[in-house]
Every structure is written in C-alpha cells, then in structure tokens.
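Mods, move this if it's the wrong board.
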Amino acid sequence: MPSSKSSSKTTGNVKVLRKLFTDMQQNPQCNSMLKRCLNKDLFERLINRRTKMGSGLMDVIRSGLMNADSNIGVYAPDPEAYQTFSELFNKIIEEYHGFGPNERHPPSNFGKLEDFIDLDPDKKFIISTRIRCGRSVKNYPFNPCLKEKQYKELEQKISGALAKATDEELKGQYLPLLTMSKDEQKRLIDQHYLFKEGDRFLQTANACRFWPKGRGIFLNKARTFMVWINEEDHIRIISMQDGGNVGQIFGRLQRGIKLMEAGLEFVRDQRLGYLTFCPTNCGTTIRASVMIRLPKLASKKEQFEATANKLNLQIRGSKGEHTDSDEGLYDISNRRRLGLTEYDAVMEMQKGVQQLIEMEKAM
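Not the wrong board. Structure tokens:
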C-alpha cells in the first residue's frame, strides 16, 4: 500500500497535469497536434496509465503542454509508451504520416543503390546532402527515463560497436562531450557536424538530463560519416557530403547501419517499424535532406510551400527546425518516414528536389 506521502505526491502531480492540460486547451495561440488529438475524455482515460519502465502521461505530453508553439507536442519516453498510450500516439501518427491504426510498416528495403543520382552535377543549387536515421538500443528507455548510469552504458556500447569498423570510409574517432573543449564544440556545431544543448522542446520533454554525460559524436576522417550518441535518440547515424550525390551518401549510410547492427540490437515494432523518441521519426527513421538555394521559389512562398506539401517534402530554415531561411537557402527533406521503405523515403526526396530545381530553372 502506498504511503500517504507518495499518495499526496501523485495527487499533486495529477492536479498539475490537469491544470496544464486545461491551460493548453484554452490557449488560442496553441495549434499543436497534441491539442487537436487529446480531448478531455481521452485525457482522463490516459491520466493514470504507466509503462513497465515507469513513464506516465506527463512524460508523453510535457513538452507540448509547456510550449504553446509546438507543432507536435508529444514524445515517447520509452518503447512501451507507443502501446500504453496508443490511443493518442495512433492519432498523432495518422495525422502526421497518413498511417492508419490498422496499417503495418513494411519490412526494411534499401533497394537498388544505382537508382540514386547526383541531383546537381553542375553544383548550381545544392550546397550539401545529408541522409540520417535513428536507432534505439533494445532494453533501454528513451531520454526522459534514462538514468545517468544507463547513459554511460549506452555510450560505451555504441562507441564500442563503432570502434570495430574496418571500412576505410567508416573508420574514425569517438569524441565525448564530457571531455570536449567549448571551442571544439563550437567549431563542430558551426560546421553542422555536432548537435547542441538548448532546444527547449527537448529540455521540457526531460530529454537533456545529466548533460553532457553519456553523449558524444563519432566522426570519420573525411567528416562524411558520423554518429550522434544520446542526443534526441540513442543513436543518430548520419552520412553527408558537399553537393547532391544521393547514391554515394545513401550507400555510406547503409554500410554504417550494417556496422552498428553487427554489435547492437535495436528496437523494432511489428506495426510501427523502428521506434524512436519522437513519433514523427518512427518507421524507416530516414530523413534525407538537401541544403539548397532556391531564391526564385522563395519569393513565391505560398506556391513553394504548396508544391512541397504535394511532393511530401518538409521545408526548414537554413539553420534547422524552427529557423528562418537565409536568402533563399533551405533545408528540404522527405516528410514521410512511416508506411514506406527506406528506398521509397529517399527516392521521394530525390524526385521532389528534382522537381523543385526544374521549377526554379523555369522561373
């Protein structure tokens, strides 16, 4: 039987959660998917549920409650949360991915590498191309529930798997944030290699605890292959280089994934594919993007955005999510990651960017 002290704490937490939920629903500035998908009846059904790893509804929706300008507002604190709070996650996933509750994500298929091309051989539009994927290590919760000891365990396991690389393009060095100088961190962040602390959406989701312990980056010599450890997900595998050669970049990513799979077991759900902290990244977890300059399209913003939506592309500012464009420079990527194969996700970006370049040329 719980003590009166713990019962009082639980009651207090429920009161806080109810107040924050009411505030969000009454806030005209809030237009998040969380607000649209979580009505009062569903909120009451979910409020007392917990996963085996101990996460509750507050862990799932805290970021959306604390940030009225959230687009999504929901994170999974552990893999089981997708089942325990399925009524909410299924709504979010259906709205974002167009993936219904009775659909099932297909098996992994990277397809034929020779189908991918150089999108900008004359180097007139594309500054760089980057393809990344996320992975979660089996038997560990996600950031909000990770203990300090588990952060360190994951860091050791993941960096150990990377140290076994024999492929010359994948060989490199692991740099822990804990021992990295501030100058070195700033240099790597400015070069768009390293993640940085301070994203308030992640902070309010409790995803930045014990920072910088257990976090770091693995970099190859050419700075074309890297792995982030314990940023938003346990693992972010990234392949990137200047220009628009999608085939080269996707091939390197595939070899990096195989390297990691040889030493680690990942969380994969039969219905949702690979599970990640943010439901927008489930499924293939693939985000294939180009940093591209489209000044003429940028001057016709409504047409630009409508075309991107039609092509299932996501537009971000030149410095990432929640930023503005810098003189027509954009980060453009595939929007869908769930309900299609890895091949299809990257091909969707390739075909979409081809069309945008043709539009820019015709203006």
